[in-house]
Amino acid sequence: MSKEIERKFLVVNQSYKSIATSCDHIVQGYLSRNVDATVRVRLRNDKSFLTVKGRNHGIERDEWEYAIPLDDARSMLQRLVDGPVIDKQRYIVPYSGKVWEVDEFSSPDAGLVVAEVELSSVDEEFDIPPFIGEEVTGDPRYYNSMLGVKK
Amino acid sequence: MSKEIERKFLVVNQSYKSIATSCDHIVQGYLSRNVDATVRVRLRNDKSFLTVKGRNHGIERDEWEYAIPLDDARSMLQRLVDGPVIDKQRYIVPYSGKVWEVDEFSSPDAGLVVAEVELSSVDEEFDIPPFIGEEVTGDPRYYNSMLGVKK
Predict the structure, then answer these.
(1) For chain A, does the N or the C end have fewer beta carbons within 10 angstroms?
(2) In whole angstroms, how far apart are CA A46 and each of A52, A71, A105?
């Protein structure tokens, strides 16, 4: 188990692109959107993963991730996924000693761009890059598991 | 992915015990009871597994199973499981060329005993052992994922 401590922000310009060190194609869906135990299937380029996450406690969350065969992940995405499949590009963006992940969604919320930074403690301080806008940490509207789900 | 084709029966006497070749202690719980994508965490003696199952189609069901570290499984059972944790003894019982699994539940439905046989096709014929009673294949009351869940 790892402990995930993350803060999430909206993105206001594309300045992350010029400093990004990589860009991955991610396709993912949810076997469970239960907030107490989210279960996600993800393709990331040519790898795939099954990930279990617990409930958010503030900005902390338990996470367990397992590599699984690509064919298994594709079958689950086709056959089992509850709700929309998410398709996004993830840019890895180093900035002032931290690594940001910037997700550009093409489905279901085409045009949405969100940035996350992983912290080592809940009160860790960090510099805000110039592409960062409003903070949306803990806002369920921006949970990947809730995107495109009918309310 | 494997395809699970199983028939399930109630058990009417203990004659399975004298022909059982092994008995395992199983503790399991569910991260998702969604009938379209059940996600189960199981400890089986000193091993543990994360298992995803699709919706039943008649007596067939898709299944994907991954071995996971024991500590991960224990944490998920303690922290994430939705509803009761199931505790049972599983006897492996060969009979007339087929292998039966007989589950004696100690929690949540103490005293319930159910037997399953895995088939290679939906219309495969097989001999009925003397401990077998009423067939309950497809009856949601006997889904492990539904035991002890408030209706």
Answers:
(1) C
(2) 20, 11, 19
